[in-house]
Amino acid sequence: MKKARQHIYVLFLLMPIWSAGQLNIYWKEPTIAQADSLKQVLAKTTNDTASMYLNRQLGMHYQEKTRTVSMSYYQAMLGLARKVKQQVWEAEAMSRIGYMYTATYEYAEGLRALSQAQALAEQSGIERGIWKPELLQSGGDPHLARLTVFAGAVQHLGILHSFAGDYPRSIAYHQQVRKLNETLQDQALASLSYLNTGEAYNGLNKPDSAKRSFLHSVEYAEKSGHRVYTGLAYYFIGKICEKEGNSEEAKKYYRKSYIANIEMESPDFEGMAYQALADMALNSRQIDSSFFYSRKALSIYNVINDTLGLIGANNSLSAAYGSSGQTDSAYYFLKKTLDFKNGLNKEERVKVFQSIGLNEQIKVQELEAAQLRTQTKIRTYSFIGGIIVLLLFSAFFYRNYQRQRKDKAIIEKSYADLKATQSQLIQSEKMASLGELTAGIAHEIQNPLNFVNNFSELSAELIDEMNEELNKGDIGEAKSISADIKQNLEKINHHGKRADAIVKGMLQHSRTSSGQKEPTDINELTDEYLRLSYHGIRAKDKNFNATMETNFEPATGKASIIPQDIGRVLLNLFNNAFYAVKEKMEQSHPGYRPTISVNTSRINDKITISVKDNGNGIPRNIIDKVFQPFFTTKPTGQGTGLGLSLTYDIVKAHGGDIKIETKEQEGTIFHIELPF
């Protein structure tokens, strides 16, 4: 009864957040006062599902205010969602965590979290038994609740690619969101989609398209009541007007921006608007106005501890004091600017350490790959010589079989030796595939290991600095340094766990196949081996880059397969595809862009995986030979000619089929068909 009363009290507390207008419940964020009350209730409640939702709401409240705090709430939400086995809520937590990683420039972690969120949320059926779908979609429809979370994950993927500079792909994600919104009819989602599309157009230097998108964003924000990012849209419109030389229009939008951000309690965006006005005032020699807006920006960035914002605000104040002839003050704020930049340099030092470690790892992988090629070459020649000798012996013994029955045992032994030699060479090919796989995993594991090493080194330096400050009696600075040390330790712990997960995954992949089929998600398996194959070829040639296009149909689902064996099939096909485009790239075709396209689909009782490359294609006079053992078009020492032969055997053993489409100078497509 006590738990039930707590649950009812939590829902009663949240009712003001859920009411109000036509805004979908999914987008409602607590005010400062509501957040304080929610924290008090969270400290008392013992109901896991209620705690899960409280953590989500508090994460949303701090999302654009204090991102480290927001992340801690979202991670707590994720743990509770998994505990109570609520997969839709789990996908929502992963989506929010991915956005937090993106906002703090940890793109690799962000992509990992968002890909998991997208894959989970697009699975039809996980909404069965969902807890309170009305908290994710106003109508309470479980299907639409799941679709809302799915759209949110796709939206965050678009933001990540925009941050990373891949603007065309970002726009494609936002177009997918608007397609989903034809079903959801969510005006707040439309507002955010247009805002992020505008940012991508900005990155592509298409100001007219960007401005139209930002104005659409404001329009839908007003309709929906979700005005959290209206100030940011006004800021971007102001930037476009300023670049076009329309100063008055730019000032108007910057003022609209900070007014909207004050109303929406968005200090980060508010500071951006003040900083823009400060810079405009300085450029037009309005020194007093520049002082005023720079100080406003500085006070905000001091509160939210935004390093980049602090650099800009201090730099503006230094320039303003310099323009007014107050050199002492100009020097003071310039020194503050440099201090904050030096703080950023610590992160740069970590990147340098990572780069050094990664280069050493790549050299090791190259040496191991060269050694493996040499061993394979020797074994191939030995095998061919052994076959010739064994065939001669076999012919001799067969001719004399009637006269010397005892020779039968010798022939059988010769055949057994032949099979053993063949098995040994097949194992060599498998080891070569494992080498490619290991090279990819080495790239994955190097970063977290270097983070552990390098943040440990930086922490040691910080401890020395802290001791110096303690000796000086500067307790405040010592506490500040200790906070940095704690943050470093958290990162060490985080990346240590990440390395542990990668090692476990590597052991799983290298484990000998049990021969037992098990239900396996084809999309996940395909995506994983595509990434590992790419890392493997990049380990051999760090200058190689290729575009990877994927179209994984959600309906593909799971198939009963031996995952390690089908993984080897995929690895062989991806390695061959990357080899083909790399070979064509090295032939210096003008305007050539190496591209690998991977598609999955399910038709009736068959699953199809298609791997397409835009290399030179396969000549028609040899296409019938590609699945023959020992046939290869690669130079001596770079291939045994068993990769596609093994691929063919494994697919056939699964009751499937493999087909080839090819055009010379245009590329090749391999289609794998597997029973569902």
From TrEMBL:
PANTHER family cross-referenced by the UniProt entry: SENSOR HISTIDINE KINASE, TWO-COMPONENT SENSOR PPRA
Enzyme class, broadest EC rank: transferase
UniProt catalytic activity: ATP + protein L-histidine = ADP + protein N-phospho-L-histidine
Keyword Membrane: yes
Species classification: Bacteria, Pseudomonadati, Bacteroidota, Chitinophagia, Chitinophagales
Membrane-spanning intervals of the chain: 7-27, 380-398
This protein's record includes keyword Nucleotide-binding: yes
SUPFAM superfamilies registered for this protein in UniProt: ATPase domain of HSP90 chaperone/DNA topoisomerase II/histidine kinase, Homodimeric domain of signal transducing histidine kinase, TPR-like
UniProt GO molecular function: ATP binding
Enzyme Commission no: 2.7.13.3
Originating species: Terrimonas ginsenosidimutans
Protein name: histidine kinase
Residue stretches making up the Histidine kinase domain: 440-676
Pfam families per record: HATPase_c, HisKA
InterPro entries: HATPase_C_sf, HATPase_dom, His_kinase_dom, HisK_dim/P_dom, HisK_dim/P_sf, Sig_transdc_His_kin-like_C, TPR-like_helical_dom_sf, TPR_rpt
Keywords, comma-separated and alphabetical: ATP-binding, Membrane, Nucleotide-binding, Phosphoprotein, Transmembrane, Transmembrane helix
